[in-house]
Amino acid sequence: MSRTPSGTPGPDPRTSGRTLAVLLALSASAALAAPTAVATPGAGAGAAQKAMSGAATAPPAIRWGACPPSDPFPAPGPQTQCGTIKVPVDWSKPQGPQTSVFVARYRAADPAKRIGVLMTNPGGPGNPGADSAIYADMEFSPALLERFDVVAFDPRGIGRSEGIRCDESIAGKIPDRPRNAAEFERLRTLNGKLAESCLRRMGPLAGHMDTESVARDMDAIRASLGERKISFMGTSYGTSIGERYARLFPDRLRALALDSAVDPERMDAERFLTDGSVAVDDIFKRLLADCEKDTSCVLKGRELISVTEELFARADAGTLREPGPTGPGQRKIDTDQLVHILYFALRQYVPEKATEQLAALHSGKGEVYLHDFGSDRAWQLVLCRDNDLRIRDWAHYRAIRERVAKAAPHVRYSSQALDMVLGCQGWTPPKPRSERAKGALPPVLVVNALHDAATPLAGARRMAASFPKASLLTVDTVGHGMYGMEKPRQAIDAYLSGRKD
Question: pLDDT tens digits, residue range 124-180?
């Protein structure tokens, strides 16, 4: 939920208690994909639009009550209320099965200055979003809290909104990085079985966790609140929700702030992997420049490049081993593990620590940090339905990997982006999208770091270009989520507070 980029100035102490925990949550889930601005109409899209139009006159009810605490954080204050809302699982069948969405509200501190409702989502997919409202005083500036009711929700299937249930025993059998055609086909077959297990255990909800459905849920919440328009602030994957909402319900938006924006276009596997990998390679180049000025960096300039090149050569040859206190251990570090270590060292971006890890791998003495994205199914259930990341076969996969390695020579590829691509092979096919609705959009504010491994600047530029009126504010830093920094926070606050209906 926090928008503080690693290795950059953080927010004021009022927010620091939640920053690290939430950044780790953002790293563990994926905030890397988004729906397109204009797409082919899907079956039932008209019925879904009609259902939402009816929601304005007969909105579903939210029964408000006290909010449960989110361990290990303190009990919510009296300004917060929580409840659930029932929405159709399939918005094209509004009378069909329903699912519950957990909603939280933090009342505006000064009713006399109240502008309206600010809905928000902190990213994911897979992260519960309601905490953004439950703990709004740890998340947003006092200026915003004076003027807005902050409303947030756990997206369908996530957190306190009817959870995900899949057969995780299948996941443990799926090859992490296929090394031949047989393993690639095995990965695709097992991914398909995993998707089928989700459908068996969750029912039709498993096929309707796409971002467009989440955006429709958000409009049901708006209707239940009795608001003609809402403002929205999304971070990372949350920008996808905001973008989808803007395309479906443009005349119901007062303001739209998108922090660390995902690409709004439905990308194929190669562009998805290329954009993510080039962004990580760009951070490596930033590390080169920063270490020239930073005396705490162990490796500098050409030495950093040559050490990294040698590490890849040793990993390719099978001679790279995990470092230990007195020398190399017995455990081998293969090429994909080296990419993984390098990815996290660059994404977390503390230059001296990044170069220390590379130096430890090179000398064999010291330690490195191995990270894991975990087994969260949310990103597959959401992103594989939003995007078409399918790859034809092993030969196509090999060709993509070779071209990506040339585009990102220092890092080879983005470990996280490749996890996303491989996870969608054999998964449920992408879901058709509705046409763009008619209506005037407000001017949009997009904010992004110049160097972001999770939401590359290229995607943020395409996000800004997808709106008739949009401003792109770039921040010269390495990081993900800019609201925790003073100047971006001031810009976002001024935009949200200053917009006129």
Answer: 998 999 999 999 999 999 999 999 999 999 999 999 998 899 999 999 999 999 999
What single string gives the DSSP state of each residue in 374-386? ----HHHHHHHHH
Beta bridge partners of 471: 445
CB 161 within 8 A of CB 37: no
Q: Looking at the predicted structure, is the pLDDT value of residue 1 above 60?
A: no
* E strand segments, 71-167: 80-88, 98-106, 116-121, 148-154
Please write the tens of the pLDDT for every residue from 104-113. 999 999 999 9
Cα separation of 203 and 162, whole Å? 11
The CATH class that applies to domain 16-33+44-156+212-266+436-498 reads: alpha beta
- Distance between CA atoms of residues 206 and 466, nearest Å: 29
Q: How far is residue 489's CA from residue 495's CA, in Å, rounded to a whole number?
A: 10
Q: Which helix (H) or strand (E) holds 234?
A: strand 230-235
The H-or-E segment that residue 196 falls in is helix 181-202
Nearest to 223 by CA among 57, 438, 105, 106: 57
- 3-state SS, 282-294, equals HHHHHHHHHHHHC
Domain ranges of the chain: 16-33+44-156+212-266+436-498, 167-207+268-432
Q: Please count the other Cβ atoms lying within 10 Å of the Cβ belonging to residue 61.
A: 10
Query: What pTM was computed for the model?
Result: 0.87
pLDDT over 80 at 14, yes or no: no
Q: Has residue 30 got a pLDDT over 60?
A: no
